[in-house]
Each structure stands twice: as C-alpha cells, then as structure tokens.
C-alpha cells in the first residue's frame, strides 16, 4: 500500500520563521514530497525558497508549472499563482484569489486532497484569520491527516485555531516536535480514502482557472445578500461543512471571517471619508462666518454659526464611530483562546 508521502504546508503571519525551523528538522531521507504556500503579495520578492534551502537538508525551490512530484524535495508556491497538485504533477493555477490571496492555502490543500486523498498530510502553521481551515477539512474528508501548530506558541494563532475547529485532530505539535512527527507519519501506510465530491473537484478546477459562471456556482452555493470584496459582485454561501465561506460568480472566495474583516475596513474607510468631508465643511463654514462678519452681515454670520455647530456635532459622532470600529478590530485580533481552543491544545 502507498505511504503518506504528500505533505502540504500552509502559513501566513509569522510563518517564515516557523518554516525556517520546520524545514531544518526534516531529514534528508524523508520519503515524501513537500509543498509550501504562504501569503505573498503580487510582485512580492522571491527570497523564501533560497532562505529555506540554506537551512534544509532537502532541496528547496519555487514551483514551476509541470514540475514532477518527487519525494525528498520541497517546492514553494510563487507569488500570484495557486500551487496545485495533480496526479500528473504540479500546476500553477491562475484562478481567482481566495481570501484575497493567490497562492491560497485552501487551494493547495484541496488539490492535494482530490489528487492524493489519504496519502496527504496537511500542515497548518501560524497565521491570521482562517485560510487553510476549509482545505484541512477537505484533506480529512478524503482520508488524509491534518497536523496543526500549537496555537499557544504560534505568533498568530488564528489559523491553527480555525483549523482545529474545522478539522479536529490529535496531531497538534510545537515546531520543535513537528519535524519528527511528520517523519513518523510518512512511514505509515495510507488507508483507503473516500472519493472526492464533485463540489470539491469543482473548487479545484476554479483555482486552476476554469470558468465558474452562474450555473456551476449554483452547484456549490446559494445566493446571499453580501457583496464580494474583490469585485463587488453578489456572493453566494458555499454549501456543506466547514467554516462559513462565500464565492462570487467570478470565483473569488472568502470565508466569513475574511468577509467580516473586509467589511470592517470598508466601514472604517467610509467613516474616514465622511469625517474628512464634515471636517472640511466645518472649516469652510467658519470662513463663511468670518467673511459675513467682515461684510457686516450679522444675520448670515448667525446662520453659519448654527451650521458650524451642527457639523461639529456630526464630526464628533463620526469620530467616535471610527474609533469604535478600530477598537473592535483590535479586540478581535488579540482575542484569547476560548475554552474549545484550550481543550484542543491541552
């Protein structure tokens, strides 16, 4: 029987340091192919593979379209391409961004689940929000294993927490333990897995760059009342288990947490614009008051003073709203582990 010989790793905020430590602990004789996706901006520097290569006993390089899947080698997803796995080899997909990212961790994990099922080990490292959670569930549903960095040591514990909620696993490890754990898991025989669903295959095809459209979208999602933060189109809520997720007709995908974050930013932007406009009106009316007094038009000056007071009150309300929105976002970013999280890592 085949072994668990596919390792797909995803991380975001804080992950470069975590990856440096992890790859340094993977042995030269590792009998698995390793694939890494981190969130990098379009046009971002391609330095990570070289830095990891200097620390690893395994060769590390950026993935190229058509690369063979070879045990004992580490491939890193390049900027602006989804890193996808197929039975024939590596594909670099140009599909829509997921959670505002390309490459996206969920896309890598889903493709590994579809192509290699129980041979797959998905690894979720430190990161903000919840990219990787839906993909981790897909790996489990197809018979693979999920390994999660201990949230208590992660620089940004959101992604490990989200993965544990979506795909509960006994394999929660500190970075100092993870290399040995992965090596041990690759020696296990892969059990029989469950065939991937048509919906899961469709999501992999979207990441490849396949057209979605209304009819195919209806296969996997129901229309919602929300707008896509990428293109402004109508979002549809993806059916099935896992974290709350949405896709638009183009194929952009966001989780509920990411959509909430995007709406926070839109609200902050809208409040900031409104505050700027009202503050400018206050300044303009104050000049009108001064001009009216110079002209001896006391009635106009009095009217403008009432307006200035009204605009100043509006500005104070907007300023309080903006500060409240900023405070709420900060509170979410530093939220402590809840009881379920603590139980998962106990």
Describe the protein.
With 346 residues, this protein is an alpha/beta fold. The chain folds into 3 domains: 6-185, Rossmann fold, CATH 3.40.50.180; 211-251, no CATH class; 258-333. The chain contains 11 helices and 13 strands. The strands form 3 sheets. Strands 3-4-2-1-7-8-9 form a 7-stranded parallel β-sheet, with helices on both faces. The chain has a 4-stranded antiparallel β-sheet with strand order 10-11-12-13. Strands 5-6 form a two-stranded antiparallel sheet. The longest helix is centred in the C-terminal third of the chain and has 39 residues, at 256-294. The two termini are 34 Å apart. Mean pLDDT is 92; it is low at 336-346.
SSE diagram, text form:
Elements: E1 6-11, H1 15-24, E2 33-38, H2 48-55, E3 60-62, E4 74-76, E5 82-86, E6 89-93, H3 105-116, E7 120-124, H4 133-141, E8 145-149, H5 158-166, E9 172-173, H6 175-185, H7 198-208, H8 213-220, E10 221-227, E11 234-238, E12 245-248, E13 253-255, H9 256-294, H10 298-333, H11 339-345
Parallel strand pairs: 1-2, 1-7, 2-4, 3-4, 7-8, 8-9
Antiparallel strand pairs: 5-6, 10-11, 11-12, 12-13
Helix pairs in contact: 1-2, 1-6, 3-4, 3-7, 4-5, 9-10
Task: State the main characteristics.
alpha/beta; disordered C terminus; elongated; 3 domains; 11 helices; 13 strands; Rossmann fold; 346 residues; four-stranded antiparallel beta sheet; seven-stranded parallel beta sheet
């Amino acid at each position: 029987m085949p072994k668990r010989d596919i390792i797909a790793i995803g991380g975001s905020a804080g992950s470069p340091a975590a990856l440096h430590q992890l790859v340094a602990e993977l042995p030269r004789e590792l009998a698995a192919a390793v694939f890494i996706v981190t969130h990098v901006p379009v046009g971002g520097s391609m330095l990570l593979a070289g830095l990891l290569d200097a620390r690893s006993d395994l060769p590390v390089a950026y993935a190229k379209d058509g690369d063979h899947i070879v045990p004992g080698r580490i491939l890193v997803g390049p900027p602006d391409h989804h890193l996808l796995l197929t039975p024939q080899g590596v594909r670099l997909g140009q599909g829509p961004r997921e959670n505002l990212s390309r490459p996206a961790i969920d896309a890598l994990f889903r493709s590994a689940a579809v192509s290699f099922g129980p041979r797959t080990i998905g690894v979720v490292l430190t990161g903000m929000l919840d990219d990787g959670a839906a993909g981790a569930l897909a790996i489990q549903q197809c018979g693979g294993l999920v390994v999660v960095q201990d949230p208590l040591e992660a620089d940004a514990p959101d992604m490990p927490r989200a993965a544990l909620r979506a795909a509960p696993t006994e394999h929660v490890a500190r970075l100092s333990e993870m290399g040995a754990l992965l090596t041990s898991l690759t020696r296990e025989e892969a059990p029989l897995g469950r065939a991937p669903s048509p919906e899961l295959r469709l999501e992999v095809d979207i990441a490849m760059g396949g057209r979605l459209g209304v009819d195919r979208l209806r296969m996997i999602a129901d229309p919602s009342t929300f707008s896509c933060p990428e293109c402004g189109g109508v979002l549809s809520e993806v059916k099935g288990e896992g974290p709350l997720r949405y896709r638009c007709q183009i194929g952009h995908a966001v989780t509920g947490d990411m959509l909430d974050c995007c709406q926070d930013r839109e609200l902050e932007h809208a409040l900031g614009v409104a505050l700027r406009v009202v503050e400018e009106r206050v300044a303009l009316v104050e000049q009108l008051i001064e001009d009216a007094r110079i002209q001896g038009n006391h009635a106009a000056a009095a009217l403008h003073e009432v307006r200035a007071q009204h605009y100043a009150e509006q500005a104070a309300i907007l300023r309080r709203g903006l500060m409240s929105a900023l405070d709420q976002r900060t509170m979410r970013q530093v939220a402590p582990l809840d009881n379920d999280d603590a139980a998962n890592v106990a």
